[in-house]
Every structure is written in structure tokens, then in C-alpha cells.
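Milestone M4 deliverable, item 7.
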Amino acid sequence: MRFELDQRVRAPLEAVQAAFIDPAFLAELGALPKLGRLELLEQEERAGLVWQRVRYAFVGELSSAVRAVISPDRLTWIEESALDPATHITTFTILPDHYAKLLEASGTITLSTDGAGDAATLRETIGDLVVHMPFVGRKVETAIVSGLMEHARLAAEAAERWTTDPR
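Output delivered:
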């Protein structure tokens, strides 16, 4: 399933970019309701890119048909990403902790200035998600993308707050 998520963050591009690689901001995201546990596992600069690994946990609702074959408490994954600060493009891959043969996901996040003159940033995520499960795969994909949309909305709101009042 191809998905696109677009947010408008009312903050300058450089501030938004800095927030999403700030360990303190990531910790705050993990404390927000509905986003699930979030843990920064690793972050380093390599060849001009910021590489990071962040563990997430799915906290959305799953249908009884999906729960029959997947345990919600085992829906955890690591997002490996590389941010190019010069182009403001992040590439990411999702690596499930469990059910690794059932899920594939990757994509890009591009930050750009809004151009409306109010120091806003556009955050566009384009990705591909495939759940390899007969009969319920599409339902699981839809549930995951729905969760990603909610996560992106809450993260954009948190980034707005963070860039105006960082801790």
C-alpha cells in the first residue's frame, strides 16, 4: 500500500528538522498519549548524514480477525533513518521486532518551506507498506497507515510546541 502523509508545521524548517533529531524531543513524543512507547536506540553522524534507530510500539485498535493471528503487544518495530541535513530529506525503513516476514515498510520524509511567508514547514512523507497476510493483510495495512496518520498529526503538533518553547 502506497501512502502519503502531509503536515504543515507552523515553525521554521531548520527548527523542525532539529526537533526530530533532538533526543529530548523524541523522549517527549514517546510520552504523548496514543503514540506508544518510543525509545531512541542509537544516533550518530556518518558521512554528513544523521543516522538514528528508534523503537516504536503500535497502540492502535486491531480487529478481532487480526488479533487472532497477531498479538498487539508484539507490534513493535525499529525505524532506521538517515537524514541529509543539506537536502532536508530523511529516508527510513521499518524493521519489525516480531513478525519480520509479514511486514515491509520504507519511505522518505521531505521538509520544505511553505512559501506562504509565515515561517511554516511542510513535512511530506511518502512510503510503501506491505503486510504479507492472506485475507487480513489489507486490513492490517489500513490500520497501520491510520496509526501513522495519527502519529504524524500529533508529532507535528508537538514540533510546533517544541520549537516555540523547547525544554
